[in-house]
Design brief:
The chain is of the alpha+beta class. It has a single domain, classed as Histidine kinase-like ATPase, C-terminal domain (Heat Shock Protein 90, 2-Layer Sandwich). It contains 3 helices and 3 strands. A hairpin with a 3-residue loop joins strand 2 and strand 3. The longest helix has 11 residues, at about 45-55.
Length: about 100
């Protein structure tokens, strides 16, 4: 079995609801756009902004009668290596209060 390392985390959210028309899909990330009677139209706009601000992406695919799929991706951060032991001990000593 081969494992493929990825540079991003991918979240896929699907439903089997009524789907959306192209007209609606093209506007769903616009602030204040809503198809709901009581909606503000801010939820998806704010969510997408947060995702983009963190270097990710948010996409939507939908067809009337076939449901909707949102795909959210985020870059994976590289794990930073710990400083060498002597450097770490030196930093700890410098940060310790002297009694």
């Amino acid at each position: 079995m081969k494992l493929k390392l990825s540079t991003k985390a991918v979240f896929i959210i699907k439903d089997d609801g009524p789907g959306m028309s192209d007209e609606v899909i093209n506007r769903i990330f616009e602030p204040f756009f809503t198809t709901k009677k009581e909606g503000t139209g801010l939820g998806l706009a704010i969510s997408r902004k947060i995702v983009l601000d963190h270097g990710g992406d948010m996409r939507c695919e939908s067809s009337p009668g076939k449901g909707t799929t949102f795909t959210i991706t985020f870059p994976l951060a590289r794990k930073r290596s710990a400083p060498a032991t002597t450097d770490r001990l030196k930093m700890e000593a410098e940060n310790d209060p002297i009694d």
